[in-house]
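Dear V.,

Thank you for sending over the compound details. I've combined the ligand you provided, magnesium ion, with the protein sequence from our construct and run the structure prediction for the complex. I'm sharing the raw inputs here so there's no ambiguity about protonation or stereochemistry in the SMILES, which I know was a concern on your side last time.
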Amino acid sequence: MTASGDAARGPTAGDVETSTALVGAPNTGKSVLFGRLTPEYVEVSNYPGTTVETTAAPLGSTRLIDTPGVHGISSFSEEERVTRRIVLRADAVVNVVDATQLDRDLFVTLQLLDMGVPTVVALNMMDEVEAEGLEIDADALERSLGVPVVPTVAVTGAGVDELRDRLPEASAPESTPVASYYGALPDGIDASRAEKTLLVEGDEPTARRVGARDLAADGGAAPLAAVGEREAVYRERRTRVRSIVETVERGSRRRLGERLGGLLMRPVTGVPIALALLFAVFYVMGVLVAQRVVDYAETVLFGRYYAPAVEAAVADLLPASGWARPVEFLLVNDSLGLLTVTVRYTLGVLLPLVVAFYLVIGTLEDAGVLPRLAVVTDRGLDRIGLNGRAVVPLIVGVGCVTMAVVSTRVVGSRRERLITTALLGLAIPCSAQIGVVAGLLAELGPVWWIGYLTLLLGVLGTVGVVLDRTLPGRQDALIEQLPRLRVPRPTNVARKTANRAGAFLREAAPLFGVTAAAVSTLDYLGALDAIVGALRPLTAALGLPASFGEVLVLGLIRRDFAAAGMTDLQLTASQTFVGLVVVTLFVPCILTMAMVLRERDARSAILVWVGSWVTAFVVGGAVSAALGVIT
Ligand SMILES: Nc1nc2c(ncn2[C@@H]2O[C@H](COP(=O)(O)OP(=O)(O)OP(=O)(O)O)[C@@H](O)[C@H]2O)c(=O)[nH]1
Ligand SMILES: [Mg+2]
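Below is the predicted structure of the protein with magnesium ion bound, written out as structure tokens.
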């Protein structure tokens, strides 16, 4: 997922560049192809809905645009609206088709051709066609469709050169059966063939746009009503798809990995597998990385070499008096010095843990395991007012809550988007945080980890149930197709991890620098004590030392900063646990809040922000009381 939202605005006035869009169903390999055809990397994951915003990059003399996956060019969902707009403006389309799913994917192909959009078909996943025991005659498909069809295996690059070479041949048949419906449209309307097709399918935005244009031209004709032949047009198109598939596809399907997939989705086996995976995450993060890598980085690299050297250098370079005192404090103080503690937290604590977690989660994403495990929880999701599609943002959230808020676009209704956003803000810890949390809990033992996860699930469930009961409206059921189980590709996992870690550093490091400078300044001026003092009733109510107040101040900016700050507090096991629970449930990072404002509205943002304070302290207080921390 990339956040270059303005990347696909299409050619502007005076801009003669052409654009070519990659269009197709979710999870068909559009983003992998985009990465093969252009120098840009966009995120690739084995579940539908990875791409929610468009990205563009140069390809020869044209601009290639990666779009969100869709099952049709219309306006039923946010992804469809984004993709429809791009298709209407594009000079050509590369229609990416999952060759093992022709009966599903050719619908979009025929729709594009009906619209008269110049198209080249990338017949992707040809490796899996073979593995599944199917045979597809690409030449016959090319003859049936009347446009270039290029078999590809995006992940190995097979066929990609041919695809690039044949882009100029993009075309559409002169006329298709849908033309017989155009007669139902008013005479002489000013609409392109693409628009006419959308009009007979009853696409409202197109009707409004064309109607408005007519109104301007005629000076007052009635606004155009959508024609509403959707049923008939779709039925006819599906019949064509079926007859094409019959002529080009041979062999009977061997479903690979079906057994394993089944095991993941059945509660008896799925739940233990999920638990085993969670334990593996804990072990990798907590034991291998936190207790080895982070420990080494903190004590040896930073403690023995880096910090003394930097402190000495600062002492040498700055004069010992006057204006230099505050500067020196800012740079090397013991609690948040810019060059000392801040650098150690960012590079020595957060980065190794974040990278490790990205590696684990990236592997699971590539394997297609996560959505299957989500099916096990489907009943649970249902109870908290969500359908299966909400799983994707919740999974993305474990990586980065900020990005996940953007992913909530794949969730059907407004109501579910709000519930998902609230759950993300209130109860889903992000990777950086999970890293530090797992690290700290590993020192206490696995029982604490189990307790931590159970508690989070409890909060997630409770918040969901409460919102489900209180928000008006109903959930809409929508079963999303499961991705195929695959052996994860190390190159993709590595690249994705590097990409995400880079993004983490670019985002977190400057923010941490500014936060540390601000907090140090407050500290120098003596104001930090006042703030920590003001928080004293809260920290005392949790049975935690006053210094936890400083951690909370960091947490206002990013929860992972707070978690990192906890590594330096001297706490008992129970206190550590209470602190981690509070920090986890505390307010989302300021970037997430900005995203909630952009994607939702001020009310949702306030609900999430204030709700986080309340949840964090109510749950933290309860845990504290239960563990006997408050005496
Ligand atoms: N075996 C195989 N896997 C592929 C091929 N192309 C893509 N994949 C895998 O399919 C999954 C989806 O790829 P993406 O490029 O993210 O799919 P997308 O079409 O961009 O999906 P959305 O962004 O969700 O619409 C990833 O796990 C890829 O590694 C292929 O030709 N063969
Ligand atoms: Mg994609």
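A first observation: The longest strand covers residues 18-24.

Warm regards,
I. M.
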